[in-house]
Each structure stands twice: as structure tokens, then as C-alpha cells.
Amino acid sequence: MTIINPITSKIPSRIGAKIINKLLRLLDKPINKLLTNHYTKKYQPSSSALSVSLWSEKKIYLPRRRRVHRENTDTMKREIIYTPLSSLRHPKKLLREMWQDLLASRELAWRLMVRDINSQYRQSLLGITWAFLPPIVMAAGFTLANQANVIQVGKTDIPYPAYVTFSTALWQTFVEALNAPLQAVTQARPILAKVNFPREALIIAKLGETLFNFAIKILLIIALFIWFQIPVTWTIILAPVAIIHLILLGTLIGILLAPLGLLYQDISRGLTLITGFWLFLTPVIYPVPKTGIFAALVNFNPVTPLLVTARELATTGNLSQSTAFWIVSIITFIGLILTWIAFRLAMPFVVERVG
In this structure, are 97 and 44 located in the same domain? Predict the structure, then answer.
């Protein structure tokens, strides 16, 4: 990149060169950020090309790593042209833009995640204790009901209080991943129509927040395993794989509902009602039934193989639904990509409507 001298060299060149060198040192970091390939070129509103008076006849060149691509060097403005043609007509270009936006959203997603985590526990008296309370309260309630013979849950592989607490922590993580995309776009609604930024940053930030909350719950699970002296096998190192698949399934459903949830508040209200009923169709407080219509409904539930596999990998190591686990996982990965594409195509229209 060449910096042009528009002023005649009436001032001595040595003095001018010294002043320019000092200015360039002061502007070193801002220029480095300004000339970033991904984020600056696509999402930062930028001014005209940098031109500084050198007060000498010589030309100064920036380092090669800071040069901008020759395209849009004069104005460095991103022109957005809306056409009736769908992005699906050029799938390679669409996938390339998706990948570039995913990379460009890393720093913004990190800042959003840190902000949300701090705001989540900042004005709270109990702080991170709220991450432990729901599984503990639910486990205590169902344990007392089981001991009083109010409910009959059958035999479990580990002590029932640990069984319910561990399963509830997994279920709560799935529900958080399910609600995360909808909460992300709803909270960012005021700025979606005003600021052009990769929408993937909202989803990644909430996904990181879900992982952070589960990392806190792991401390509770470790304490339960020690208290009840639950033996573990080597398969416990594979349990995070099943847990990540469970989180991705919730994210898939959440991304699918996010555009609709931004238009209609009924989605978020109905989701609370559905997840409450969905809990009783998932083997959280009881083992997987073997026969009957209810057993068919439980086994048809896509959360069942993921949650059961994660629980079995962390405890006994004997997998009872490995085939169903991989079927649901493959469907989840394929559906996540398709839902991501649908999310990108739908959000501009949704933002235009709510804006």
C-alpha cells in the first residue's frame, strides 16, 4: 500500500520523516486492526484510504502483512446489493461466505459470551450457585417421592439421588441449548436492523455460555460420585462426546425456531410448555422402559439415546442404545448444516419485518 504525499516539500525532509515515523508508531495497532482481512473488510464501516503527508519526496510502504487487497482500496466500503436471486443458486459461494462469517465472528462471540456470563451472575446474591440448585431441588423432590412410594421408578444402575441429579443436569443443559438461539436473537433485536455483523456470533456466544454452565455442573457431578462412591470406567473420557451431541441437538432445534421466535412471542411461551411435557418423555427420573406404548414414545424421543449414552458412558460403560445414538447424531449434524443455511436466508427478511 503506497502512502502519497499531497504537500510540497517546503519543510525539511528530516523533520517531516521523524514526525511521520512517530505518527506511524502511534497508529501501529489501530492500523493493524483496521486492515484485518475478514472482519474489517466485511463488517467494519471504513473511511477513505489512508493518506498521510510525508513532507518529503520519498514514499513509505507499510509492511506486506498489513496490505489490503487491491479491491476496494480507494474507498474500503462494502456495497450491499439486494437482488431477487436466491443465494442457493451459488452453493459454493454460500458455503464459503458461511465459513468466512464463522471465522469472523469468533472475537465478537467471545466478547458477547463474557458479557452474558458476567451479567448472568453479577446482580445475583447466590451467584453460580444457581447452576447447582435446579438439579439438586429436582433430585431431592423425586427422591423423597420415590422413598415414600408415591412413584415407582424401578431399579437404577447407580444410587437414585445421583441418578436423578446427573440426568437432570444433562436435561437442563439440553434445554439451555434449545433456548439459547431464541434468547440470543431476541436480546439482540434492537441492533440487528442497525448494525451489520455476522449473526453466527450470537449463536456461538450462547453456545459457549451453555458449555460454561455445564462445566460448573460437573463439579456437582464429581461431588456426587465421590459421596455415593460410584465406580467409573475408562469410558468416562468419552462422555463429553455424547454431551456435545446432546447440546448440538438442542442448538439445532433452537436455530430452527429462532427466526419464528423473533416474529412471534408464542414460540418462546409454547417452548416452555413443550419442554415441561418433554421432560416426562425422557428417561431423566426413571430408567428406560422396555414394553408398552409409553416405552415406544420414550424410545422415539431423539433426546433419549443421547442422554442415556452420556449417562452410561460416565457410569457403567455398558451402552444400550449405541445404534440409535449414532443415527440421531448423524441426523443432528446434517440438520445443523441445513438449519444454519435456512437461518442465514431467513434472518434478513425477519430483521426487515421486525425493524
Answer: no
Give yes or no: residues 49 and 96 share one domain.
no
**19-55 per-position pLDDT tens digit:** 555 655 665 555 455 545 444 444 444 333 333 333 3
Alpha carbon distance 37, 27 (integer Å): 18
pLDDT > 50? residue 261? yes
**3-class SS of residue 289:** coil
Q: How many residues does the chain have?
A: 355
Domain that holds residue 185: 90-354
298 and 210 fall within a common domain:
yes
CA distance 283 to 298: 7
What was the pLDDT predicted at 15?
56
**255 and 135 housed in the same domain:** yes
Distant-in-sequence contacts of 65-74, Cβ < 8 A, 24+ apart: 66/1, 66/31, 66/32, 66/35, 67/1, 67/35, 68/1, 68/35, 68/41, 69/37, 69/41, 72/41, 73/1, 73/49, 74/48, 74/49
Q: Can you give the pLDDT at residue 83? A: 57
Instruction: Output the CA–CA distances (angstroms, integers) from residue 349 to 15, 235, 262, 342, 355, in the order listed.
Output: 56, 46, 11, 12, 10
How much is the average pLDDT of 204-229? 88
* Among the listed residues 202, 208, 33, the one whose alpha carbon sits nearest the alpha carbon of residue 105: 202
User: Identity (one letter) of the amino acid at 293?
Assistant: I
Predicted confidence (pLDDT) per residue in 44-53, tens digit = 443 333 333 3
Q: Are residues 102 and 174 in the same domain?
A: yes
Q: How many domains does the chain have?
A: 2
User: Position of cell 438442542?
Assistant: 250
